[in-house]
Amino acid sequence: MKRMQISTVVFLFATICALPVAVGSESWVVDTQDEWQQGIAETTNVEVKDGVVSPTGEKATLQSTVRRFEKKQSAQSIVFEQSSLWQNWRPIANLGPSNLADAPVLLSLGPANYWMFGRYSAAKRRGANAKTQPKFQAQTATLDGFDIPLKTTPFANQFDAPGGLKPRLGGYHAWQSRDMVNWVHHGPVTENFSRWVTSAEHIDGKTLIYYDFPNDQDPHVYVDEDLTDGLPGENKGKAVDDPSHGSDAGFIRDLDGNVHVIFENWDPIDASKRSWDSPLAGHAVSPNGVDGFIIQSPAVDNRTKPTGEIRTYKHPHWVKEDPKNYKTSIAEYEVHTPEQEAYGDWASICIGGRYYLFGDYDPVGGHSMSACWFTSPSIDQPFTFCDHIGKGHPDPDVCFAEGKFYLATQMKTDYVSDGPWVESVETRVGVDTTGDGNVDVWSDWMEVREAYDYTPGFSKQVAKEPASVDLSELPEGFGFQFEVRLTDTTENKSKPMLDKISISFR
Predict the structure, then answer these.
(1) 135: CB partners within 8 A, 6+ apart
(2) How far apart are CA 104 and CA 106, in angstroms?
(3) What share of the chain is helix, strand, coil (3-state, %, to 5)?
(4) Would you place residue 133 in the very low, low, confident or very high pLDDT band (cuts 50, 70, 90)?
(5) Does residue 94 contact residue 394 with C-beta atoms inside 8 Å?
(6) Which of 122, 41, 181 lies closest to 484, judged by CA?
(7) Three-state SS string across 115-150, please?
(8) Distances in whole angstroms, Cα of residue 271 to Cα of each of 116, 220, 342, 362
(9) How far apart are the C-alpha atoms of 284 and 298, rounded to whole Å?
(10) CB within 8 A of 95, min separation 6: which ones?
């Protein structure tokens, strides 16, 4: 494959980089568009756009210029950061119990302690001879990781615990898994009036289960101290006093202990014609997740131009479900032009300090729905659109379990990902030990990748170990250079896209 020619600006910068720099430099960072363009000496099958290096083929290579110092330096490490698009998702069969209905809610409480919430469906077994099969007779069962009495069920990979045998209440139920394959049913966690469950969090041994009441209105919350007893926890009532219509909210606790909610705001759109979604997502924060939520700046704001024209639409549930507080089901909105994209049914997760929002995606034009996701370096900053996947009305949720990330939806397909990092990235670093501007010693080629782990005490905060290589065994030198090999090993649209490289020195 033919190598790209070095541009004039790269050549000039390479000349400048060959000059000594001041003593005391602690790092060499290549991050911005200019830094990438000026810091690269040679490339093969590489595109540099918007500050990100991408391979244009299955394999790509790049070599940096030589970074020089007046006095010898000792390299400590090289760290790689990739694009935050997170396109590394693979389709899988639907997660969880086969009879789980309505929007799935996921909650990971640590290694081998995974929960899924949904409506309990008593769907009959399918098949031509279903009517002639004898009535199912539950048998005593055992399952690794569970030391409680269990019964078999007519559903594959599902078992009833004592709580799962208690009366159904018309709301959401809880299932628990040690491996994301086998599920133990623990019974109801909400009631019929509180069946519009949207999200869950876990704080200091208590599970907060959030539901809309009435549908698509203010989030309410149960505080449940025992998910296994087959009974709803304490209903604390309204958690978020949201002045707008729309909800389908997702909750997440930050590392300082504050609980954030991202909710739909239907003020700029006729939600009844757009899958009950909106271009505007509100944000509020509370110290405990139960009350005291204070409205913040919007998390997502993709509104088009407001016209000043006010129109109305009708919601089917407000007066019917809560006549005490809703005397009308008519809502007002301001017309915006041109047509707006709409998002909603929010769910969130944080990986190494970077936040992601997953939700419905109802685009302009044909309105073929799918699951989408946004990202932000902070929960307090605006989120930007990343991508979308699948087909259908997703109502998604996301969690980290068994070393992977799972995206559960109402669509026919769910998804799994190893994480935002995309394989494969290999690197080596060279040292100019004599000061003549040429590399004398190279490290071995090494593959780098990020690693992820649970954060004790937090269900949606995932720890990240950076993709780095220890360089402390390299000799001291007057100059340093790095080379990178990129290989796209995935079958999906993702590819290893480098956002930033940092080399630290002692």
Answers:
(1) none
(2) 7
(3) 5, 50, 45
(4) low
(5) no
(6) 41
(7) EEEEEECCCCCCCCCHHHCCCCCCCEEEECCEEEEE
(8) 28, 21, 9, 11
(9) 9
(10) 104, 106, 116, 180, 406, 408, 414
Span 6-27, mean pLDDT? 41
Burial of residue 24 (CB within 10 Å: 0-12, 13-18, 19+) is exposed
Q: What SS3 class is residue 416?
A: strand
Contact 230, 166 (CB under 8 A): yes
Query: What phi, psi does 414 have (nearest 5°)?
Result: -105, 180
SS3 12: helix
Opening angle at CA 175, ends 86 and 203, nearest 5: 70
Longest dimension (CA), the chain: 87
pLDDT digit string, tens, across residues 163-209? 999 999 999 999 999 999 999 999 999 999 999 999 999 999 999 99
Residue 199: predicted pLDDT: 98
pTM: 0.92
Tokens 């065994």, residue located: 473
| HEC assignment per residue over 346-391 | EEEEEECCEEEEEEEEECCCCCCCEEEEEEECCCCCCCEEEEEECC
- The mean-pLDDT minimum among 99-103, 130-134, 224-228, 300-304 falls in 130-134
Q: Is residue 13 over pLDDT 50?
A: no
**Do 487 and 59 contact (CB within 8 A), yes or no?**
yes
Percent of the chain residues topping a pLDDT of 70: 93
Of the candidates 308, 298, 305, 248, the one whose C-alpha atom is nearest the C-alpha of residue 274 is 248
Q: Which two tokens stand for residue 144?
A: 């690794």
Which pLDDT belongs to residue 5? Answer: 33
pLDDT at residue 83 greater than cutoff 90: yes
CB atoms within 10 A of CB 51: 17
Q: What is residue 9's predicted lDDT score, i.e. its pLDDT?
A: 31
φ, ψ at 131 (rounded to 5°):
-70, -25
Q: Which helix (H) or strand (E) holds 17?
A: helix 8-17
Type of residue at 208: L
pLDDT at res. 396: 98
**What number of CA atoms fall less than 13 Å from residue 61's CA on the CB side?**
12
- Identify the CA nearest to 86 among candidates 362, 369, 300, 373: 373
Q: What is the CA radius of gyration of the chain?
A: 27
User: Which residues sit opposite 81 in a β-bridge?
Assistant: 500
Side by side, which strands form the sheet with 414-417?
90-92, 414-417, 404-408, 397-401
Q: Which two tokens stand for residue 100?
A: 């789980």
Confidence of residue 26 (pLDDT cuts 50, 70, 90): confident
3-state secondary structure of 321: helix
Tens digit of each residue's pLDDT (9 = 90 or more) over 288-319:
999 999 999 999 999 999 999 999 999 999 99
CA end-to-end span of the chain, whole Å? 38
Structure tokens at 474: 């390299």
